[in-house]
Design a protein that fits this description.
The chain has 351 residues and is α+β, with helices and mostly antiparallel strands. It folds into 3 domains: 1-163, Alpha-Beta Plaits; 169-225, Orthogonal Bundle (DNA polymerase, domain 1), CATH 1.10.150.20; 241-350, DNA polymerase, Y-family, little finger domain (Dna Ligase, domain 1, 2-Layer Sandwich). It contains 15 helices and 12 strands. It has helices at residues 12-20, 45-48, 58-64, 75-89, 118-133, 145-151, 168-174, 185-193, 199-205, 207-214, 216-225, 255-260, 262-275, 308-320, 340-350; strands spanning 4-9, 29-32, 40-43, 69-71, 96-100, 103-107, 137-142, 160-162, 241-252, 282-291, 296-302, 327-336. The strands form 3 sheets. Strands 5-6-1-7-8 form a 5-stranded mixed β-sheet. A 4-stranded antiparallel β-sheet has the order 9-12-10-11. Helix 4 runs antiparallel to helix 5. It is globular, with a radius of gyration of 22 Å. Its EC number is 2.7.7.7. GO terms for molecular function: DNA-directed DNA polymerase activity. Belongs to the DNA polymerase type-Y family. InterPro entries: DNA/RNA_pol_sf, DNA_pol_Y-fam_lit_finger_sf, DNA_pol_Y-fam_little_finger, DNA_polymerase-Y, DNApol_IV, PolY_HhH_motif, Rev_trsase/Diguanyl_cyclase, UmuC.
Length: 351
Amino acid sequence: MKKFIHIDMDCFYAAVEMRDNPELRDKPIAIGGKHRRGVLATANYIARQYGVRSAMSNYKALQLCPELLIVPGRMAVYKEVSNQIRQIFAKYTDLIEPLSLDEAYLDVTDCTQHSGSATLIANAIRDEIFETTGLTASAGIAPIKFVAKIASDENKPNGYCLIPPHRVQGFLKALNLKKIPGVGKVTLEKLNASGLFVGEDVLNLGLNQMQVKFGTWGAELFKKCNGEVIGKINTSRIRKSLSVEHTYEYDKTSLEQCLAELPKLKDELDIRLQSKGLLNKISKLSVKVKFNDFVSTTADYSCTHLDDDIFTRLIEKAYLRGGNKGVRLLGLGVGLSENSYEQEQLAMFES
């Protein structure tokens, strides 16, 4: 039987800022750029009570919470703290899969510390994180990898949730499908339209019908809801791309309207890249345009940094493929490479 732990730091960037500046502790704060079109990386729990969330625009966040303090991020500090946390993980297992600076999966199946109890190990890790960094973390413990991730969100902040083997089936049956990793907004709408809202609904429909109605991912979802997808730790996870996209309530009916959305999308992409420490790994820029007939097109260009002019040209190129069709979705993205930063530095010295 596998023993997975998912550790998720509590509002990590905001918590670091509150730790280093006690005057912020009792105030609603968020991390992000100062300009109006900026996008928030995260918010503390006081701000979240007002509805402020990550990936929200500064403008909307300030409408919800006029007293909100938007603090510029300090990525070097966050990376340093994240490294401290990962050193703690390494005391218990070599099977570590970081998802970002502030969360990771651990496989502690073969760990002998604390009599091999995954719950005791998880709480020992949480205690040591607090003693070392002054920050709190939440944990999920389960014999299935994705269940551990869901569980880590059950008792936030500064809590833990154990889903032991005998409770897995009941947990999955009652689980809202939107909580399952891989079930996005569009997928959830399709499932709900078919009367599927929780795991038990999927199980009642059956494997064959899930595959008939939804294809391969339908069969995979059935297996997840049935507890068949155990998962394994990927210690060599390399992210190959990252993107942001917005679907608009009303179609954009001109190139000028599409280009007007570029600053907002680029700011959001910039924040996400910073939060994941990926700004120095960019190898390609790309755009996605979905027209009002749901036909999509993309365009890309090799580049090692975010560039407004290149994004503008790519949007123009993609937009013109649609003729006079309205645009319902715009997206910006980057391709990622482990050595893109080194290539850029070499090019600078050779130029």
